[in-house]
Design goal:
single chain, rod-shaped
């Protein structure tokens, strides 16, 4: 049998139920935030790679124009 709080057994929402619901919400938000941070880091790395490649090509172009 699954855990039931006193509020669940008596048919009302207890302070503990509210607290546990808030904890679950915070965990979901933290998880979503970490996923978003990873996505942003991936995009930043892709942009850094593109910037590096542009710098290489600009250096080659400058060398060829001499």
């Amino acid at each position: 049998m699954a855990f039931q709080s006193i509020g669940q057994r008596l048919g009302f929402v207890s302070a503990g139920d509210e607290y546990r619901a808030l904890e679950r919400k915070v965990r979901r938000m933290e998880s979503a935030s970490k996923a978003k941070d990873a996505e942003i880091a991936e995009k930043d790395n892709a942009l850094a790679e593109k910037d590096r490649r542009i710098a290489e090509l600009e250096a080659k172009l400058a060398e060829m124009q001499k």
